[in-house]
Amino acid sequence: MAEYNHTCIICGKKYDHCDKCRQVNSWKAICCSIECYQKYIKPVVEEIEDFMDKPKEEEVEIKEQNEKTSKNKYLKNKNK
User: Fold this and answer.
1) Is the per-residue pLDDT at 51 higher than 90?
2) Are 53 and 30 in contact (CB under 8 A)?
3) Domain residues of the chain, as ranges?
């Protein structure tokens, strides 16, 4: 019977792996299975996706300025 030397940080299951996994940054160093690892990294992946989807503040400011300029030009032309 194998001697368990690690505990999964997600499900608490005890499992065995060599310490080389930590040296090569393997998912086996912190989780007992790929499914537990996916649960572990899900919040990080979602945060990155949210960050990538949000426009930068400068882009928002430029867009707002362009909309105001366009509206002002439209109103000037309309009043002529």
Assistant:
1) no
2) no
3) 6-79
How many residues are there in the chain?
A: 80
Does residue 80 carry a pLDDT above 60?
Answer: no
Answer yes or no: are the C-beta atoms of 39 and 10 closer than 8 Å: yes
What token pair was written down for 57? Answer: 């503040």
Q: How confident is the model at residue 14 (pLDDT cuts 50, 70, 90)?
A: very high
Question: In 3-state terms, the chain is what percent helix, strand and coil (to 5)?
Answer: 60, 5, 30
Q: Return the pLDDT at 26.
A: 86
Spatial CA neighbour of 38 closest among 9, 7, 4: 9
Cα–Cα distance for residue pair 45/3, rounded to 1 Å: 33
Nearest CA-CA partner of 16 in 34, 28, 26: 28
What's the pTM value of the predicted model, to 2 decimals? 0.56
